[in-house]
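Appendix B, example 12.
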Amino acid sequence: MRVVLDTNVLVSALLFRGPAAAVHAAWTSGRFVPLVSHPVLDEYVRVLAYPKFALTEEEIGWLIRHELLRWAEPVTVTARVDAVGNDPADNRFLELAIGGKAELVVSGDAHLLDLGSWKGIPILRVRRFLDSLR
């Protein structure tokens, strides 16, 4: 299964316990393939660098290389999307979903979740996504 992870899901999966940690376990065990593009990867790195996480550049690089990119499929995004007007930066996840032929987007972001689905691609909360893996 090809899946786009919103930034809040990816950060929670890498740094915290709880339901999102099971998302990390699922991709590292091959239950799904996370998709990444340059804009999404840049967003992941930008958010991981927030002072509240207290991560060094080396720690962020290690997390990205060893905990994500080992399993991720890189996607070159060519289409531009304007579906999320309230937060245009969220469109990058939809662009990745289309470009990568994703089956799902997993998010905790209200702007994306309010769409429910986009172009036939469901947008699910973490718990619902984990239920779909069972």
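The chain has a mean pLDDT of 94. The radius of gyration is 14 Å.
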